[in-house]
Design brief:
Layout lengths: L7 E3 L2 E3 L1 H15 L3 H8 L3 H13 L6 E5 L5 H9 L3 H7 L2 E6 L2 H13 L6 E5 L12 E7 L8 H11 E12 L8 H19 L3 H13 L3 H10 L3 E8 L4 E7 L2
Parallel strand pairs: 3-4, 3-6, 4-5, 6-7
Antiparallel strand pairs: 1-2, 7-9, 8-9
The protein binds S-adenosylmethionine.
S-adenosylmethionine (SAM) binds next to helix 1 and helix 4.
């Protein structure tokens, strides 16, 4: 597939960075109301296992300042807060959990979930683009982006921004769909993502294009090694890759030194 002289992809469509950001924003605005339900159905609940593993690896402390970039409805942030012992603990030790997302409607769903859980101040919800975050240089302990980087217009710019806002000694985590590492498993996965996911999207969310985008965007996203190089090129150190479920998803971790 040719990209012509465009910057990137929106699904299978070659587009410029800004165009992608605007299309992605429209898509998540549309799916915000059923995002959590669809997430559970499409991943058959496996994303909970991956996210549990991620939070354990992050091992956040209640005095740390953490950004959950492209944090959507706050799935990871709720887990971080609970791991840190709840909002009182966070306040006492001076930590902060900041959910940053491009799409206001996703953040609104998150805020709603937050109130339902009785969380009032533990999490801050910030409408912002991963390419230009409203934080000072060297100000955060932890940066995470979970199923978000694939959706960002200019990935390199987002990585530069992650490096800028982290303190020296700060940690970077990116969990994203990736490339299957066992070839014998690939056809089954391909069938699932090419046929089942768009069907579920059309049956449950009545939005087949949105879920077709999901599968197409995974195909265009850099594989494990390519992403690791990109992270390294953007000044991070000690990059490590962990494959989850045979590479359906991969976690990249790195340090700012
Ligand atoms: N991290 C959440 C999770 O794991 O459930 C949400 C992931 S959802 C697949 C992707 C999110 O990325 C959406 O909420 C979307 O609005 C957000 N997003 C897309 N492009 C973005 C950007 N350039 N900056 C910040 N957020 C972005």
């Amino acid at each position: 597939m040719e990209k012509d002289n465009k910057d990137t992809w929106f699904g299978n469509l070659a587009v410029d960075y800004q165009e992608k950001t605007s299309l992605v924003h429209d898509l998540f605005k549309r799916v915000a109301g059923h995002y959590d339900l669809m997430n559970n159905l499409m991943s058959l609940g496996i994303h909970h296992v991956w996210k549990r593993q991620l939070v354990k690896l992050i091992n956040p402390k209640p005095n740390e300042i953490m950004a959950d970039v492209a944090g959507g409805t706050g799935d990871i942030s709720f887990r971080l807060l609970s791991y840190c012992g709840g909002e009182k603990n966070l306040q006492e030790f001076g930590g902060q959990i900041l959910v940053c997302d491009l799409t206001l409607e996703m953040l609104q769903q998150g805020r709603h979930r937050s109130f339902n859980k009785g969380i009032v101040q533990g999490i801050e919800w910030i409408e912002s683009n991963a390419e230009h975050l409203p934080f000072k240089n060297n100000s955060l302990d932890i940066y995470m982006i979970v199923f978000g980087l694939r959706n960002v217009g200019n990935i390199t710019q987002a990585l530069k921004e992650a490096h800028r806002i982290l303190k020296p000694g700060g940690r970077f985590f990116c969990l994203e769909f990736s490339k299957i590492i066992y070839p014998e498993f690939a056809p089954l996965y391909q069938f699932y993502s090419d046929y089942i996911i768009p069907k579920l999207g059309s049956l449950i969310a009545q939005d087949k294009p949105a879920y077709q985008y999901l599968t197409d965007s995974i195909k265009h996203f850099p594989d494990q090694q390519t992403l690791a190089h990109l992270i390294q090129e953007n000044k991070f150190s000690q990059i490590r890759i962990r494959n989850f479920s045979a590479g359906i998803a991969a976690l990249h971790t790195a340090w700012k030194v």
